[in-house]
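SECTION: protein entry
WANTED: fold as tokens:
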Amino acid sequence: MMRQALAWRSDAACAQSDVEDVHKFFPSGRPSTAPQQLCARCPVADPCLEFALDSPWPPNAIVAGLTPRELEPLWRERHADAHDEIRSLLGPRWKDER
């Protein structure tokens, strides 16, 4: 089931790009515009974005043309209920860095 659910990845524009360019998707400092240009013509940008937002970890790469800074509020909104549930279970021990 999981393999079939992720089958879209083989159609991703980044999957067809040079391995040397992969590091550009993980910006340190000012991000390169190359990944965003690649994502702009990607046929599977929507499922890529959904995959990133469904992840239990905040995005740290350029996904669907969005930088980690642009993705973070979307990810936090998607996971707000989980944060609230953890906070209610852990009480004062919960350190929320939102």
Remarks:
- The mean pLDDT is 81.
